[in-house]
Amino acid sequence: SHLGQSRAARPLPFGRAYCLFSWGANSYGQLGQGHAIDSGRPAAVSLASGISDCTSGIISNTDLEAKLESTSGDVLDMSSGQTSVSTSGQASVSTSGQTSVSTSGQTSVSTSGQASVSTSGQTSVSTSGQTSVSTSGQTSVSTSGQASVSTSGQTFGSISVVIGGGHSIILGGELRTPLSCGWDQCGQAGGSGGLLFAPAPSLAAAPRIVAASAGWDFSLLLDADARLWALGNNSRGQCGVGGGGGARVCRQPALVPIPAEVGDEGIAVCAAGMRHGVACTRRLGRVVTWGCGRRGQLGHSGGPEPGLVESLSEPAVAAAAGTGHTAVLTAGPGRLFVWGDNRHGQCGRPPELGIAFDRPVPLGALAADGAEQTADQGAEQTADPIVSLHSGWSHLLLLTCSGRLLSWGRCDLGQLGRSGDAWRPLPVATPAGWRVLQAASGSEHSACLVAAGAKRLLLCWGWNEHGICGADSDAEFLSEPRPVARIPADPAAVFAGGGCTFALLSEHQGEPDFELVGNSV
């Protein structure tokens, strides 16, 4: 099967200095830089002293930040795929007419074709590999029984950043407890309320967390025993507790009540939309949703309480969610289903055919040009298998095995990074010969990590207020991918959510630390 051609993600090399940088909107301190001032260019996250001892090499490297003042930016000729150096530090992109698209998901990877969510080596729903996804981003994955996580991107080693509407959570590696920063008014960051300007171990009281996802003002936490917890705003039932009629706010992690018919399967994947949650069970891949369902995004009529999406008969191995839509990827060939809000074509159908769908809509297999294929057209042989799925508030991205990025949905702020029908998954405009290694999506912007020869580059596009795209541009939005300016070191991973972006940087330049093999990174 398509999803069976995977192998585990390589961990980030030990003994190498990594630094976590961030940029974009920061009115709540969600960038973790120690202040609440927007940052239009990458700056180091303020990790406390000693944090580097437990994060598999991530450090707050002030030397790297200092290089920002002396590093020239790369000017990329997007029409030819060539890279040249500029002394001005300005980034420019040409319009080549090439189109491509992306979604906002994540990838979960497995070893020997088997994925596990917990450190105890429990197997996930798919025996042939697994892809898990989320909106503001989260991936739960495991290699050889060790859980690794990712926010709005793929799994890299075991470091992850989950970003919500105004808060961020850093987890993974050998970090003893997740670090959080930003908006904590409803307890979504695990603190005592107010604002957290620098990452702090506010979730120390939570069970051992191996994966997470963040919505507008709530968070979902998956522990090592495959139990799902929630905290933050519960006014729409988004924490899954009391159906919206219980506690309005969950300031301490509350166990999400899974429907009795699920039994003791446990949870393999979770995803947070703006005000609703999604989970996929570990063994049978059943989909559970809860919270706000005004646009049909829950896929069931049971109200805000957690309920099964019974109309989905195929086992799901990945999930993503936006403001009013939900997307899942199923096992086997990897079919994509979307339901809920379709005003911007999120469900892969023209809005004139329906502005909302309350049952899963299959997008089918995708040909090389992004067009949907049917079985009698040989889709099983020609389709490009999906590696990861990502979702912003109203747009989606998906990354394929060949390293192409497709996008669809809302496009008025350049979120899709291409022209053409907004409702149809089509390739994002990246230069010929460049391979997308990872993708991520914020609320209204997108980002990806590409391999351009032996060099790795970060590209961003979409909503650019607050300097979200990091492209040294005052434009309100960028309609095509632009290089992130003044990156002081080699990018290893990118994470996005809300109105900001995080990147893991390494001083190493040269061959990538990971490679795309089959459907894994």
Automatic annotation (TrEMBL):
**Region span, Disordered:** 75-152
The RCC repeats extend over: 18-67, 226-283, 285-332, 334-402, 403-452, 456-507
Q: Which UniProt keywords apply?
A: Guanine-nucleotide releasing factor, Repeat
Give residue spans, biased composition: Low complexity. Answer: 79-152
Q: Which Gene3D superfamilies match?
A: Regulator of chromosome condensation 1/beta-lactamase-inhibitor protein II
Identify the residues that the record assigns to the RCC1-like domain, covering every copy.
154-503
Domain of life here?
A: Eukaryota
Q: Does the keyword Nucleotide-binding apply?
A: no
Q: What is this protein called?
A: RCC1-like domain-containing protein
Organism of provenance: Macrostomum lignano
Supply the source organism's classification.
Answer: Eukaryota, Metazoa, Spiralia, Lophotrochozoa, Platyhelminthes
